Automatic annotation (TrEMBL):
Pfam families: GST_C, GST_N. It is found in: Cytoplasm, Cytosol. PANTHER family: GLUTATHIONE S-TRANSFERASE F12, GLUTATHIONE S-TRANSFERASE RHO. InterPro entries: Glutathione-S-Trfase_C-like, Glutathione-S-Trfase_C_sf, Glutathione_S-Trfase, Glutathione_S-Trfase_N, GST_C, GST_Phi_C, Thioredoxin-like_sf. One of its GO terms (biological process) is toxin catabolic process. It catalyses: RX + glutathione = an S-substituted glutathione + a halide anion + H(+). Its EC number is 2.5.1.18. GO terms for cellular component: cytosol. The keyword Transferase applies. It is an enzyme of class 2 (transferase). Keywords: Cytoplasm, Detoxification, Transferase. GO terms for molecular function: glutathione binding; glutathione transferase activity. This is glutathione transferase.
Length: 173
């Protein structure tokens, strides 16, 4: 039986309640709060029609190229061992080969752009941070990122932001 918290029909987290308003799916939640508080702090959504489109483009790259590979890697190398379940090393090795190609695209993009959507930190960078955080904690994957100079520079910069440091402190890292 699926246990629904905050109306999440798949029984997963995160899900939020903001007053009477309920929402699930982490990326939709992040966009909701970024829009709701767009007049405060960093503008995460993009400043023009074109900039917003580029933010959306790299956010979609995260979902459709990056996360589809990284999510099962993290499940197998981080989550399953914690649950005492066996991980599928064959699958992880296949995914790592595919991920090398995707990381090259990122490194190339970040060679001429400070952040994924251009000169400013946006939602496109932010949505990568949870999975990137896991990857950097896995020796082999950490090496794959560190080998890419521009991606590594980008990761150092976005994790130096006060909000990430605060989150890490709260998580006890
Ligand atoms: N696409 C969803 C994925 C959510 C997800 O994978 N949630 C995991 C934790 S990170 C979960 O709740 N797993 C528990 C379960 O499936 O029973 C999102 O981004 O919100």
């Amino acid at each position: 039986m699926v246990v629904q918290l905050y109306g999440q029909p798949f029984g997963q987290v995160p899900a939020i309640e903001d007053g009477d308003f309920k929402l699930f799916e982490s990326r939709a939640i992040a966009r909701y709060y970024a829009t709701k508080y767009s007049d405060q702090g960093t503008d995460l959504l993009g400043k023009s029609l074109e900039h917003r489109a580029i933010v959306d483009q790299w956010s979609d790259v995260e979902t459709h190229y990056f996360n589809v590979l990284v999510h099962p890697i993290v499940i197998n190398l981080v989550i399953k061992p914690r649950l005492g379940e066996e991980c599928d090393i064959g699958l992880v090795e296949e995914l790592k080969v595919k991920l090398e190609v995707v990381l090259d695209v990122y490194d190339n993009r970040l060679a001429s752009n400070r952040f994924l959507a251009g000169d400013e930190f946006t939602m496109a960078d932010l949505t990568h941070m949870p999975a990137m955080g896991y990857l950097m904690g896995i020796t082999d994957l950490n090496r794959m990122i560190k080998a890419r100079e521009n991606m590594n520079r980008w990761w150092e910069e976005i994790t130096a932001r006060p909000a990430w440091k605060k989150l890490m402190e709260m998580a006890g890292h």
